[in-house]
């Protein structure tokens, strides 16, 4: 049989070649259904019609599905570089960009070919013999910025300081002469962490830290009294621009702007007080340096197991995830999720890559099912869990020195973040919030086949029982994925050690000394105490009893209506202090390997119990303003929100539940009237009739539509989701019943959910390092094959001392009898 000339084959398929437009999404760094790249064996094949990229094992699937035969093959080969190559000195706090740290990334040489399927006929590029259309298309592909690069910020960079709006016209008063050394706070004996107010020259101590160390807040109190806006930290002033990071030669803070800033006239402002900055040497850490220093403290080293001889692990289930820039919250969470049998079965064992690709839409990069399957196979197959040197064919170093490159979850992050504006940024996020959003999206994508939905393995029911002094009761039920636990510090088991430490701490503070990190004693609270606190009776003051037709004190208890396959415990380490100031509890939780929560099972309405009747408080029925469900209000206030805001949220969502009220609250926090008192004389605004008409046109009943719109703040999209996710409530509305009626026993909210015994085994921990969930670092520890393993982004190794007492999220698997 005569062999077809490759050039003739290409010319016969020119109609399937497109020249990309400026708006075209071009993928050329990673396969859209695997983690193959141009550095992989066989290179990467870019479809010259759709501009999607495929590895050598998958490009044939794309040809079968689309019939597109022409591909640009990109292959990268590692260059040999001299071992004594000098390292560049960094000038920016960044990695992988000009001026940043040299992370010794190897250099690669890139080669190109035109490949025509199914015969894999190959033509070289560049070549003047290629048709002009092909040359134009390839040039455009190579010149364009890849879609993967557009959808992520590839380098770590520190936030740049801004010039203060108060610096240029700063008013200076008084005739204070500041000495070059020997400073002391004007209001106490503090001699460290001192700030010079640039208006009047007052030297005062800085803020008190959440753990009691630091200053006594005298500098910020002085600002509140005088309004003088700028202060410079004494001891950070230097003329050495290189030591100061080329941004500013001192640490200047603007109180009205609530941030570290640049004062371009700082030398002039210091000279007013007789300070010659050129003669000063830096003796104190700047605010940024102190934040970085906190990352090297005991907790940081303990959670990351720094200094431990951690043995790297390779193979199936031991693949690291590359940090895309503050994406550790996602990496830690997904490592634990894909260690569960439910997610492993759904996206790995029972679904191969070809099956997912064949059912995916034309662009598989935007399909959650495809990208979850891709991520599962990347993490669990072991294909990418190899020592980095072994992947590029060079000699393999000793095991203890080996490391893996990990896989970059770019496409998964883009898909899962598409419906959440915060997760699409490069800022650090709360791992708990991401976990809940992830499970919600997985549930939606499996709505057509709920029996396949792996998120259900985490779902369970919670029931709250409220008993008022009339002897009658009310029940509220909801579904959740996590059990959020308060930490009762008064249950600490090391009270004597704490008392002794607090005395030493008070003595040191009175002498102007700080307590070293080695001396700090933290409370130790048993997990059993946190669980007991959840089910303990709680008084609800001013509860309106429809039986008594008056306000009284009620008692609320809570329990679970089902026990899920996987139980996730969230430790409420972050609390709100007065003035909405977040504080992280510095506490250890003693967590056993096995727990039994059988006593937390709630049995619902019991024989002899009588439900509270439906009735509004006297005088309120006439005015038609609704009454907030006190149980929901109590839950919200326990999260740190004020009573006023909680009642507003509950009323505006028609007592639909905690989640609905929380969503309303978060979306209305910036409203101008959010802190205004609740108006009792005005009827609440009705639902938008156009929104009602739109949803009714979808086939929903009007009463159900109005209820859903009230519960979701008028959003048509969220109201639609609410209708599908609340079938019991909709059924009640359709029958003319109030979903908040207590005249009949509530329907079993956990019907159809997994259930079983109450004994669980700990298998995963997500720990957080830092002062806020919005900053710091997340690390996962997972029990695999009988041993604990640390997953720290792309680093995977055998854990020596897993921080079981320092977790933020604890993952337990039910022990089946």
Written account of the structure:
It is a single chain. With 817 residues, this protein is of the alpha+beta class. It is built from 25 helices and 29 strands. The radius of gyration is 31 Å and the shape is globular. Mean pLDDT is 80; it is low at 91-101, 152-159, 240-248, 291-298, 617-624, 680-685 and 734-749.
The gyration radius over C-alpha positions equals: 31 Å
Low-confidence stretches: 91-101, 152-159, 240-248, 291-298, 617-624, 680-685, 734-749
Mass-distribution shape:
globular
Mean pLDDT across residues? 80
DSSP helical segment count: 25
Instruction: Give a short account of the largest sheet.
Output: 8 strands, mixed
Number of strands: 29
What amount of the residues lies in strands? 15-25%
Q: What percent of the residues sit in helical stretches (DSSP H or I)?
A: 25-40%
Class from helix and strand fractions: alpha+beta
Alpha-carbon distance between the two ends = 67 Å
Question: What structural keywords apply?
Answer:
817 residues, alpha+beta, 8-stranded mixed sheet, 29 strands
Any chance you could write out the topology, listing elements then pairs?
Layout: H1 6-12, E1 44-47, E2 53-55, H2 59-66, E3 70-78, E4 94-95, E5 108-116, E6 121-125, H3 132-143, H4 147-150, E7 156-157, E8 162-163, E9 194-197, E10 203-205, H5 218-226, E11 230-233, E12 252-254, E13 259-262, H6 266-271, H7 287-294, H8 298-304, H9 328-337, H10 341-349, H11 353-359, H12 368-380, H13 388-391, H14 410-416, H15 431-445, E14 460-467, E15 473-480, E16 483-485, H16 495-510, E17 524-526, H17 527-535, E18 538-545, E19 550-560, E20 566-571, E21 574-577, E22 581-584, E23 588-590, E24 594-596, H18 620-623, H19 630-637, H20 643-652, H21 658-667, H22 689-696, H23 702-711, H24 716-725, H25 727-734, E25 759-769, E26 777-784, E27 787-792, E28 795-798, E29 807-814
Parallel strand pairs: 8-13, 16-20, 17-23
Antiparallel strand pairs: 1-2, 1-3, 3-5, 4-7, 5-6, 9-10, 9-11, 11-12, 12-13, 14-15, 14-19, 18-19, 20-29, 21-22, 24-25, 25-26, 25-29, 26-27, 27-28
């Amino acid at each position: 049989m005569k062999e077809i000339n490759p050039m003739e084959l290409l010319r016969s398929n020119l109609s399937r070649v497109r020249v990309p437009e400026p708006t075209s999404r071009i993928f050329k760094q990673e396969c859209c259904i695997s983690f193959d790249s141009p550095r992989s064996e066989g290179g990467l094949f870019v479809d010259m019609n759709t501009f999607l990229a495929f590895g050598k094992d998958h490009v044939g699937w794309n040809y079968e599905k689309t019939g597109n035969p022409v591909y640009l093959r990109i292959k990268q080969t590692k260059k040999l570089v001299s071992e004594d190559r000098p390292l560049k000195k960094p000038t920016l706090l960044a990695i992988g960009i000009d001026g940043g740290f040299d992370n010794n990334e190897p250099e690669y040489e890139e080669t190109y070919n035109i490949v025509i399927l199914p015969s894999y006929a190959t033509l070289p590029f560049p070549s003047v013999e290629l048709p002009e259309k092909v040359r134009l298309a390839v040039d455009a592909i190579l010149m364009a910025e890849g879609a993967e690069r557009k959808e992520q910020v590839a380098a770590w960079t520190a936030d740049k300081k801004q010039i203060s709006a108060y610096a240029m016209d700063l008013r200076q008063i008084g005739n204070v002469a500041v000495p070059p050394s020997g400073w002391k706070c004007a209001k106490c004996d503090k001699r460290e962490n001192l700030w010079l107010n640039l208006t009047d020259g007052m030297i005062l101590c800085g803020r008190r830290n959440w753990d009691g160390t630091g200053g006594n807040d005298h500098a910020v109190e002085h600002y509140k009294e005088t309004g003088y806006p700028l202060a410079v930290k004494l001891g950070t002033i230097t003329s050495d621009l290189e030591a100061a990071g080329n941004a500013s030669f001192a640490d200047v803070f603007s109180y009205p702007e609530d941030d570290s800033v640049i004062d371009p006239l700082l030398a002039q402002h210091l000279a007013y007080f007789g300070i010659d900055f050129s003669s000063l040497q830096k003796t104190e850490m700047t605010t940024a340096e102190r934040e970085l220093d906190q990352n090297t403290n005991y907790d940081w080293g303990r959670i990351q197991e720094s200094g431990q001889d951690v043995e790297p692990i390779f193979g199936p289930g031991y693949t690291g995830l590359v940090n895309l820039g503050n994406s550790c919250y996602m990496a830690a969470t997904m490592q634990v999720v894909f260690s569960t049998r439910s997610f492993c079965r759904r996206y790995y064992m029972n679904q191969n890559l070809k099956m997912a690709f064949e059912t995916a839409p034309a662009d598989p990069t935007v399909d959650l099912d495809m990208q979850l399957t891709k991520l599962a196979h990347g993490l669990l197959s072991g294909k990418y869990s190899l020592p980095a040197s072994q992947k590029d064919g060079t000699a393999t170093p000793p095991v203890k020195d080996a490391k893996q490159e990990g896989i970059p979850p770019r496409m998964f992050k883009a898909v899962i973040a598409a419906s959440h504006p915060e997760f699409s940024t490069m800022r650090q996020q709360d791992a708990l919030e991401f976990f809940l959003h992830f499970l919600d999206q997985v549930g939606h994508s499996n709505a057509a086949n709920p029996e396949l939905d792996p998120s259900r393995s985490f779902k369970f029911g919670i029931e709250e029982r409220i008993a008022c002094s009339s002897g009658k009761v009310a029940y509220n039920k909801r579904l959740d994925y996590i059990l959020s636990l308060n930490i009762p510090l008064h249950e600490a088991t090391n009270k004597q050690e704490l008392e002794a430490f607090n005395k030493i701490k008070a003595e040191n503070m009175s002498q102007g000394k700080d307590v070293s990190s080695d001396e700090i004693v933290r409370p130790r609270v048993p997990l059993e105490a946190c669980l007991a606190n959840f089910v303990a009776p709680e008084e609800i003051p001013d509860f309106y009893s429809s039986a008594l037709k008056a306000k009284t004190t009620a008692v609320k208890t809570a329990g679970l209506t089902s026990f899920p396959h996987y139980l996730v415990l969230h430790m409420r380490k972050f609390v709100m202090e007065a003035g909405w100031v977040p504080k992280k509890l510095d506490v250890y939780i003693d967590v056993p390997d096995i727990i039994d929560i059988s006593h937390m099972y709630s049995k619902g309405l019991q024989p002899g119990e009588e439900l509270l009747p439906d009735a509004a408080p006297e005088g309120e029925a006439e005015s038609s303003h609704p009454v907030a469900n006190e149980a929901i209000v109590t839950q919200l206030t326990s999260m740190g929100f004020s009573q006023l805001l909680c009642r507003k949220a509950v009323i505006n969502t028609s007592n639909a539940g905690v989640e609905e009220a929380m969503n309303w609250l978060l979306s209305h926090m910036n409203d101008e009237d959010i802190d205004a008192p609740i108006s009792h004389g005005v009827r609440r605004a009705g639902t938008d009739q156009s929104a009602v008409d739109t949803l009714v046109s979808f086939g929903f009943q009007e009463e159900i539509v109005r209820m859903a719109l009230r519960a979701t703040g008028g959003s048509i999209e969220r109201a639609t989701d609410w209708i599908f996710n609340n079938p019991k409530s909709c059924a009640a509305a359709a029958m003319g019943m109030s979903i908040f009626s207590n005249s009949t026993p509530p329907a079993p909210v956990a019907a159809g959910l997994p259930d079983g015994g109450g004994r669980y085994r700990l298998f995963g921990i997500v720990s957080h390092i830092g002062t806020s969930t919005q900053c710091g670092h997340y690390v996962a520890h997972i029990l695999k094959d009988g041993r604990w393993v640390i997953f720290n982004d792309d680093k995977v190794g055998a854990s020596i001392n897993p921080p079981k007492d320092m977790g933020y999220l604890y993952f337990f698997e039910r022990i089946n009898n």
